[in-house]
Amino acid sequence: MKEMNCCLTLVCHKSLEERLVDELLSHPDWVRGFSIKHIEGGSQKEKLPSMLEQVRGRSQRVQLDSVMNLEDARLLIAHLKQAEPNNEIAYWLVPVLEFGRLA
Q1: CATH architecture of 6-95
Q2: Which of 16, 23, 34, 71 could form a disulfide with 12 if both were Cys (CB 3.0 to 4.6 A apart)?
Q3: 85 DSSP assignment
Q4: Residue 48: its pLDDT value, please?
């Protein structure tokens, strides 16, 4: 089994959630599982599609986290850049020192 040595985080507007989930589910060799959090966020470059979001200055976002192998994460990122080229999708990678199950 490959070493699970990084956490890939993807953040996007809630309207892109299903497309990103579909992408993750379609690559089980790279992504063995993920978590989804519903969050709010804002940035200088963000487009705020609804009037409520424009008034509040932030939008409803989705954060997807997956602990995975670093090489697989880089392959997935490269794939997403081709399949979903969208500057509204942010990502980052952080090292994972240890990953396992309690049983």
Answers
A1: 2-Layer Sandwich (3.30)
A2: 16
A3: -
A4: 62
| Lookup result for tokens 């192998």 | 69
Q: Can you read off the two tokens belonging to residue 89?
A: 């999708």
Q: Where are the domains of the chain?
A: 6-95
pTM, full prediction: 0.86
In whole angstroms, give the CA distance from residue 90 to residue 13: 10
- E strand segments, the chain: 6-13, 35-41, 59-68, 90-95
Distance, CA of 94 to chain centre: 13
Check the CA dihedral 19-20-23-25 and report its sign.
Answer: negative
- pLDDT of residue 49 exceeding 70: no
Distance of CA 91 to the CA centre of its chain: 6
CB of 6 closer than 8 Å to CB of 96: yes
